[in-house]
Inverse folding.
């Protein structure tokens, strides 16, 4: 009995704590849609709903969330009848890109955009196939030059250090 | 005759030195950015949108038109030379890439350029003639009809672009919900803003588009670890006369197909290409060669692509409702410039309408005289490795987002939509219908509330009015058909599954019998 359980556990592919039965793109998609519908639908109750003849700001979001909820339920039901497709999801690259973008905004806000650009280049390239700081330096210099060109030639108002 | 006069009036506005320059810049920059991996027309337009902010309205529209056509051509170039399509140029990969393998890249690129020109020219005649006529029909539309039309558009786009009604429609609805973020125009109440000041005006269009189409695509490319070999072949552009003659019949067929399909709701460039390609495969004189690198295989679809891209502006300009994601984005760009396309636009801003129609054609000419010869230089962008390219694209996404309001906080919005777009993509949900829903959302709400105000809360009005009644009937029919089709397919599959095991069990045995019989 014990060995059988071990074998069964080994066969299970875990993804975000879900076991293999849950790792189904169609099912998870339905659940995702239901979550979005719930978030917007429950949010709508914070605003006056009114009635159909005199709609308040909450009515229309409620109607649309309702439609989305119906679609979500149909998707969940449908996923029981079609073949399972495992979800292919890698979290590494998207996190790196998010850090690079948010870091760019933060550094540009509190220091200046020159450092922001350098930060973004050096962080985002971690997601690439190879990493070389010399190359990153070159990219940063080139992009900073482009930023200055935009600032002075096209009249974009970028937070760059320098004479105005 | 009147149409010709109007067109001449439009050309007067389009053919100033400044506007020509904007058109040229739009075309070439559009092609260059459109060539970049991971950036289709939607991402390209939203990336270049900030460029048009400081330009006069007519000039900005002309530049946008140039960017749009340039981006589309850039797409087909990368499809022909490297078999690397975005959603908008899948068909160009088939014969176009085969021609590249045969060493006829130049001919394929030339054919695509000339056919686009032919398709665009035919479509502009259709547009100039049909848009004002349809505009008069649009005055018969009441708010209930607009609601029904938008729902019908959602349905068609979902089915056509994503192939899955459920997924596409869900994305449309999420788009509508995202479009509601911000201050409600009727009551002045802030909805779903989380008290963030940069959400009070709603989610920025550019943030949404760059996040969902730019950043999500870049991340997907990074996940794939694809190594692309840059194109190194020679390009001989000018064809021989017999080759040149083969372009025309196919391009004209493609133009007709494309012009027709572009007008239909949900019909965009992608489906027009497939239709034109299928038609050529049936009726062309060289139909046996199609699929193995025939001129017709490139010409027909390129013409249809361009023609459909043009005529899909007809519903936008005459009724004010975009019927696919790209025109929805163009509508967003028009609104940023303070223009609301619709039946009133032709009457109140004739110089804009006819100027835009004329500039579309000017854009086409530029595409032919500027981009086709320049394409060999533009292609050198692929010699840059992706590791260098993608930080630069990210940088341009940031600058594009920032320069709308000169606000760094908008970059966080873009980043969040990048994450959302990536998650949706991994769940197999296409973001293009989301764009359409996002832009139509406020319009849908406005018309929905107005309808119910007029009918005092009764939903009967949707069925009683002939236009909305018909459209809703079509929607109901369509959904019934989908449900029935799914049910019968599932039943057939189950029956098949019940029947197949016995033959499978017998087959190996039957195979073994002669083997064991021949062994001794």
């Amino acid at each position: 009995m014990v060995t059988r359980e071990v074998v069964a556990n080994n066969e299970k592919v875990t993804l975000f704590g879900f076991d293999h039965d849950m790792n189904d793109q169609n099912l998870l998609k339905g659940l995702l849609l239901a979550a979005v519908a719930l978030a917007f639908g429950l949010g709508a109750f914070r605003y006056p709903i009114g009635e159909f003849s005199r709609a308040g700001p909450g009515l229309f979001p409620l109607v649309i969330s309702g439609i989305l909820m119906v679609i979500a339920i149909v998707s969940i039901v449908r996923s029981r009848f079609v073949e399972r497709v495992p979800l292919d999801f890698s979290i590494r690259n998207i996190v790196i890109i998010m850090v690079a973008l948010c870091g760019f905004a933060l550094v540009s806000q509190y220091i200046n955009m020159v450092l922001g650009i350098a930060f973004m280049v050096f962080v985002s390239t971690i997601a690439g196939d190879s990493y070389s700081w010399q190359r990153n330096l070159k990219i940063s210099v080139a992009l900073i030059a482009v930023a200055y060109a935009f600032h002075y030639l096209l009249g974009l108002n970028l937070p760059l250090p320098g004479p105005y | 005759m009147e149409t010709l006069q109007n067109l001449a009036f439009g050309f007067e506005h389009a053919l100033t030195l400044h506007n020509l320059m904007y058109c040229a810049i739009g075309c070439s920059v559009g092609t260059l950015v459109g060539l970049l991996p991971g950036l289709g027309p939607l991402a390209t337009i939203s990336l270049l949108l900030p460029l048009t902010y400081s330009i006069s309205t007519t000039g900005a529209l002309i530049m946008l038109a140039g960017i749009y056509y340039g981006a589309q051509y850039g797409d087909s170039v990368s499809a022909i030379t490297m078999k690397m399509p975005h959603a908008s140029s899948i068909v160009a990969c088939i014969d176009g890439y085969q021609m590249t393998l045969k060493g006829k890249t130049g001919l394929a690129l030339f054919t695509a350029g000339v056919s686009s020109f032919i398709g665009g020219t035919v479509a502009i005649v259709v547009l100039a003639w049909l848009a004002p006529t349809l505009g008069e029909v649009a005055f018969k539309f009441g708010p209930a009809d607009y609601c029904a039309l938008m729902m019908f558009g959602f349905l068609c786009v979902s089915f056509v672009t994503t192939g899955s009604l459920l997924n596409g429609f869900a994305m449309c609805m999420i788009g509508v919900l995202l479009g509601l973020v911000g201050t409600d125009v009727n009551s002045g109440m802030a909805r779903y803003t989380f008290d963030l000041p940069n959400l009070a005006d709603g989610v920025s269009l550019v943030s949404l588009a760059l996040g969902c189409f730019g950043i999500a695509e870049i991340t997907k490319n990074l996940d794939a670890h694809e190594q692309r070999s840059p194109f190194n072949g020679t390009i001989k552009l000018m064809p021989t006369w017999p080759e040149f003659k083969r372009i025309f019949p196919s391009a004209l067929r493609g133009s007709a197909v494309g012009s027709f399909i572009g007008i239909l709701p949900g019909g965009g460039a992608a489906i027009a290409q497939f239709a034109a390609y299928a038609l050529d495969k049936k009726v062309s004189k060289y139909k046996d060669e199609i699929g193995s690198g025939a001129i017709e295989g490139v010409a027909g679809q390129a013409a249809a692509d361009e023609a459909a891209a043009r005529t899909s502006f007809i519903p936008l300009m005459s009724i004010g409702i975009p019927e696919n994601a790209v025109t929805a984005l163009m509508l967003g760009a028009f609104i940023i410039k303070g223009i609301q396309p619709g039946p009133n636009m032709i009457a109140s801003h004739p110089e804009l309408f006819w100027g835009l129609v004329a500039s579309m054609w000017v854009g086409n000419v530029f595409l032919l005289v500027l981009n086709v010869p320049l394409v060999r230089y533009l292609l050198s962008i692929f010699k840059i490795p992706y590791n260098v390219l993608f930080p630069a694209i990210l940088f341009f996404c940031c600058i594009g987002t920032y320069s709308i309001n000169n606000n760094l906080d908008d970059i966080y919005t873009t980043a969040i939509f990048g994450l959302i777009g990536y998650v949706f993509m991994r769940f197999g949900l296409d973001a293009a219908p989301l764009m359409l829903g996002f832009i139509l959302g406020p319009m849908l709400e406005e018309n929905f509330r107005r309808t119910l105000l007029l009918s005092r809360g009764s939903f009967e009005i949707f069925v009683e009015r002939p236009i909305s009644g018909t459209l809703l009937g079509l929607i109901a029919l369509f959904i019934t058909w989908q449900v029935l089709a799914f049910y019968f397919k599932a039943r057939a599959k189950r029956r098949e599954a019940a029947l197949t095991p016995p033959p499978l069990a017998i087959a190996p045995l039957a195979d073994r019998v002669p083997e064991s019989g021949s062994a001794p």
Summary: Residues 125 and 131 of chain A are 7 Å apart (CA to CA).
